Structures are given as structure tokens and as C-alpha cells.
Amino acid sequence: MNVVSFFAGAGGLDLGFEQAGFNVIWANEYDKDIWETYEKNHPNTIFDKRSIVDIPADEVPDCDGIIGGPPCQSWSAAGAARGIQDKRGQLFYDFIRILEAKQPKFFLAENVSGMLINKHSTALDGIKKLLKNAGVGYDLSFQMLNASDYNVPQDRKRVFFIGIRKDLGFKYEFPTETFPRITLETAIGDLKNKAVPALEYNNTNGAKCKVANHEYMIGGFSTMFMSRNRVRNWDEQSFTIQAGGRHAPIHPQAPKMKLIEKDVRIFVPGKEHLYRRLSVRECARIQTFPNDFIFHYKKVAAGYKMIGNAVPVNLAKFLAQSIMKQLKSNENSVPQAQKTANSISF
Fold first, then answer.
1. Beta partners for residue 146, in sequence order
2. Angle, alpha carbons 146-68-109 (nearest 5°)
3. What is the pTM of this model?
4. What does UniProt list as catalytic (predicted)?
């Protein structure tokens, strides 16, 4: 089955679908800092670099599915949370515009859990209605998932919209299966003592890294960062990998931060040298990108950004497999049901 991808980023969602047996025939990403990474890791995918607002629907290939993660900053509870009032939030409407024109068998859209806060309820209801009514209509399934339940070693809550075209005669059911949680030791333990700091001004070490992308951002920590513990132990899972390198979790070699007073923590005295940010490669591992997926950038911040914005590959694969399975199990029964219904005379 062929799919097209919007807001593709580095391609975590795309890679998961490919691993599940889908063909990502065409993808779109507007951020030039990501272009080289996507093209070199997805050589068989036609890559469109325009903003989605400038893409006529008839220039998007016909496909079985449309997938994507419209920009999430507008919906983040930790940010301004302007939602649909922000131009980035409005890009959801262009995703729906393409969906309505192409009418694929299914779609998947991913976004942050901040969409669920009360101030966004009206906008969220509106988006759901538009998705359901796109073209001939879609049966919409909507659920928040924690990636930690799906072979991803981090706490990461995200919402998923999955729609099945109404004429196919069934509604997608989110799987109830979950998996044992993967620890940081399992995910990144073999990378101990191999990371290198970024160069001055957080420029990349490039090919000088003995392990590709195994470098970490340097520089101070904000008072906001220091307001909470940012360390998880080796036998725990990571905090959410975010798009900002300065907000990357601290490596588990360090002891948990010491509480001084409400919203004020410090690094344990005498252990300060142990407190470094997770490297770009460690973040990629935690997002379940394979080792041969290489991120290309000049500033390490760009590496953190494309990884933090990605859908974890293992979660994407799991959902893609379930979509494939449900489509195949229903593809023979639906036409027969339609024939039976059409044969009834009144």
C-alpha cells in the first residue's frame, strides 16, 4: 500500500510505516534544516520542499493513506498554547484540504497531548468534525497513547487521529496490546563514555564523532530547567525527548538533582561533572531510530530539533501494522456486504 507524508520532519513516522510494509512514495517538509537528513535516509521517496499551503491537491500522488504530524507548538500546554489561532495550528486545515481531495482509504495525524486542554476543546471538536466529513466521510478514532507502552524507552504522551473511509465499512480500533517497558540501560547503555561535547557555539563535530551524532549540547541551564529534576536512573525510562536541545534530559550517569526549595534544584555538589545533556544519538536511540539513520546538521540544536519533533519509530510501526492488519481483514468482507445491501429491493 502506498502512503504520502506531510510535515514529515526527519521521517520517524515514515520509517515506522515503511518497516510495517507500506511504501512512502512522496513526502513533504518545509524546514530546510531537515532536508538533507530526510533525503539521505529516504532515498526512494519523492521529496517536496514547499509549504503545504502552496501545494495543490492535484500535485499530490494518489495513495492508500495520508500520514503526518501537523506542527505541535501551537497546541503545547507548556508553551503559549494558542492552538488554532496560531498560523502553525491552522496548518491542520491544509492537511484536511488534501485529505478531502485525495480520499485515501485511511489517514493518521499525530499531535501533542496539549490539544486536550480545556481552552482547545472547541477547536478540537471542530477539527474532528472536519476530519469526519472530509469528502465521502471517515470513521474517526481518536486516542492519547504513551509511547512507553510500545517499545519506546520514554514517557511520551501524544494524541492520534486515525480515520477509515466510510465506504470501507469499519472503524479503526486502537490495539489494546502493550509491551514491557524498556529502560535507559537497555536503550543507551552501550554508549557510555563515548559522547563528546559540541564544539564552540554548539557547532557539530561532524565526522570526528566516533559514533555518528554522539555529541551533546554545551552551555548553561535555565532556571526553568533547574526547577525540576531532569535525571532518570538507568533502570528507568527517559523523560520526553523535546525539540529543544537545551531541554534535553540529563544523562543517567548523574545522581538525581537535589531539591533546595520549591521549584529550585541544584546538581549534587561534587558531582557536577556528571551532569551532561543526553547526546543527539542517545536521543535518537530513545526515539527508536536505528543506528544507521544519520542526522545531518551544522548546529547540534538542529539535530535535537528534528529528533524531538519525530514520532518514535517503534510506535509508528506498531500503529502502521495495526492499520495494515485491519484494512486487509476487512477488504474482502466489505464488498460482499455492499453487494448484499445493494441487492435488496424495496
1. 157
2. 55
3. 0.90
4. 72
Q: Give per-residue pLDDT as tens, 95-134.
A: 999 999 999 999 999 987 777 777 777 878 888 888 999 8
Query: What is the CATH code for 2-178+313-342?
Result: 3.40.50.150
CATH architecture of 184-308: Alpha-Beta Complex (3.90)
Q: What confidence score (pLDDT) does residue 345 get?
A: 29
Angle between helices 12-19 and 313-330 (to 10 degrees): 50
Q: Where are the domains of the chain?
A: 2-178+313-342, 184-308
Active site residues: 72
- Cβ neighbours of residue 137 under 8 Å, at least 6 residues apart? 165, 166
| Orientation angle between helical segments 313-330 and 333-342, nearest 10 degrees | 40
Of the candidates 29, 24, 61, 30, the residue with the CA atom closest to the CA atom of residue 43: 24
List Cα–Cα distances, 253 to 71, 138, 185, 225, in angstroms: 33, 48, 10, 18
pLDDT in tens, 205-230: 999 999 999 999 999 999 999 999 99
Grid coordinates of 275: 551532569
